Amino acid sequence: MFATALSGPILGRIQATGSASMKKTVVKQASLKSLAGTALQDWESEMSWEAIRALQMLGSPETLAMAQRFATSKNRHKRALAMYIASQLRRERYPKRWHSGSHEYAMEETQALLLAGLNDPIANVVLAAISGVGHRPHPSALPALLAFATHADANIRFQVAFALAHYHEDASVEALLALAADPDDDTRDWATFALGSMHEADTAEIRERLWHNLGDSNESVSGEALAGLASRKDERVIAVLLERLDDDCMVFELDAAEMMASPLLLAPLNAIRNAVSRDEDSDSYWHNRLDAAIAACGGGEK
């Protein structure tokens, strides 16, 4: 289907790494032209991703026009850059003293670019477009996403699993059920998360898939399945938690215990609290989730 093979990291997971000085070099007072040049010069490098992130926050008629121009370029990297810009183009709120953060910019125009990008002959461009219609869903993208769900390349399937988390049609659920059994760990992980936590549908097929993935050798897949079952109040989760709840358990187990809110889980949760110490090096988030689970299951303050 595509003219080139994939290379490099899984595209669409825009990296947030890089030193502070690097970020300042790329972002501070940079023009659109210079940012685009940095993004294209060493494609998929840390500097390239930082430039892309900066471009995404510069929502304006000029940035949109550049993306639209790049989208029809003969250069595959320019077309992919157009997709990445379109996928998350935002504009800072003004005046800053009244609002903070940013808001989505040119939604209809960027969705049009992304939908066209799904038909590109180059895999890297399609990857960026699939990621984009995950960030900016559009009903017209669903048929293409369903077609790509069985693609031979795991990177394509991963991006489809990411995107389908935001599409709640029956066909999306069916595709995610298949992707949750994918041989690729990342794809299976995200599809399990999408089914378990992003979709509210509660069918026998979904529960069966989540229950099967509960025994997955990948801890994250198993944890996402546990969370999905707990959110549906599946009583089988209690027996699983009674086996898994100990002082080495992950946040998945603590969150599931909170969602189940069963007094049967109070004893092992209290045992964990009594067994672990809290100091400045402790994982405060993990301890907060433990406290929340204990409270939900009927426990009071220590």
Write up what this structure looks like.
The chain has 302 residues and is mostly helical. The protein has helices at 20-27, 32-41, 46-56, 61-70, 76-87, 107-117, 123-135, 142-148, 154-164, 170-179, 185-198, 204-213, 219-231, 236-244, 251-260, 266-275, 284-296; strands spanning 90-92, 102-104. Among the domains are: 1-136, Alpha Horseshoe (Leucine-rich Repeat Variant); 239-302, no CATH class. Strands 1-2 form a two-stranded antiparallel sheet. Helix 13 (219-231) runs parallel beside helix 15. The longest helix is centred in the middle third of the chain and has 14 residues, at 185-198. It is globular, with a radius of gyration of 22 Å. The model is unreliable at 1-29 (pLDDT under 50).
- Compute the number of strand runs: 2
Largest β-sheet summary: 2 strands, antiparallel
CATH architecture classification name of the domain at 1-136: Alpha Horseshoe
CATH topology of the domain at 1-136: Leucine-rich Repeat Variant
Helices, by number, come to: 17
Strand content range: under 5%
Shape: globular
Poorly predicted tracts of residues: 1-29
CATH superfamily of the domain at 1-136: Leucine-rich Repeat Variant
Order of helices and strands: HHHHHEEHHHHHHHHHHHH
Question: Order of strands across the widest beta sheet?
Answer: 1-2
InterPro entries: ARM-like, ARM-type_fold
Pfam families: HEAT_2 (PF13646)
Protein name: HEAT repeat domain-containing protein
